[in-house]
Amino acid sequence: MSLRLGLLVGVTAMSLLVAGCDRLSDEVRPGASGGAKAPRATASKSPAVHASVTAAAAARQGPAVVPGKVMLGAFVSFQGVAQQPALAQRRSQLGRDFRILHYYYEWDDPLPTAMPTVGPGQYALLSWRGPSYKQILSGSQDALIAKQADRLAQYGKPVFLRWAWEMNGSWYVWGGAHNDSRPVDFIAAWRHIHDIFQARNAKNVGWVWGPNWYSKPNDPWNAMGNYYPGDDYVDWVAISGYGDSGLTPNAIYDEFYDQFGARKPLMIAETGVTDRGGSTKPDWIGALSDWTKAHPAIAAVVWYDTDHSPGTKENFRLDSTPGSLEAFKSELANDPYFSG
Question: For 253-304, how does the pLDDT look when each residue is reduced to its tens digit (9 = 90+)?
């Protein structure tokens, strides 16, 4: 979801830190039952999938998989609260830091050369917005891309970079629906940016390819797999998927897992759920924990921990209710499986 408050990376980037995800409400589809209780039982996938994924981890760039564990992260942004105090609050509540801190950048925002909020043992996940595919493929953006690569190379630490996420949706200018319905051009643009970063020796960057869990429009040409740049150009495969359409984690993530779980380590890069009364939110958090444990190729889960996402009044904070906070603590933060 968003790159937010308090990072000393320039005035332009600071404006992004309060931006958020632009189209979250689009996931709440008509007719969905927001009060549905998410079942806890989930069939486990073969551990061989996890073994095949982690065996290749040493050859990848950027942050590495922790075998047998899941890295827990969050985009943390509270209305009227700077990021350092917000992170301190979470540390006090959970008794730990997040392993991944998520931030959002506009295409022409300077990517960071330093990140004071990212401490030892933590990784930054940078979601970097894009222009149109044609702008990239024309070569007109090459100088900007090279400068961004140089900045992340200067940063030096392992970092996740998720460029042009949710490209199979219709809500962003870099979506296929706004680019002549040509996923092949997305692939060419991705590879073009990747190759410039490689040429500039930005070897600390882990490339995170991240579609949305459903495609819009839901046409064959727009299927998520049509945008995949290829194993040589992707280090992690991520998914965006929220629980507020009344669907279980199985319904949201299974197709994605089955398609990519044997190819790359997987990340749930954007997830969350709002309270719909009763125990709906704690139940869904528990179901997410169970689903993740049953799917060993999942190596990272990143929560959208905010109460002011643009375009919606929904509250995705993990402490929106006492029961939600307790569920997050017991099912995720304090569970040794999520200590990667």
Answer: 999 999 999 999 999 999 999 998 899 999 999 999 999 999 999 999 999 9
- Report the alpha-carbon distance of residue 184 to residue 102 in Å, rounded: 28
pTM: 0.86
Q: What is the CATH number of domain 11-21+47-338?
A: 3.20.20.80
User: For the segment 216-246, what is each residue's pLDDT rounded down to a tens digit?
Assistant: 999 999 999 999 999 999 999 999 999 977 7
How large a percentage of the chain has pLDDT more than 70? 82
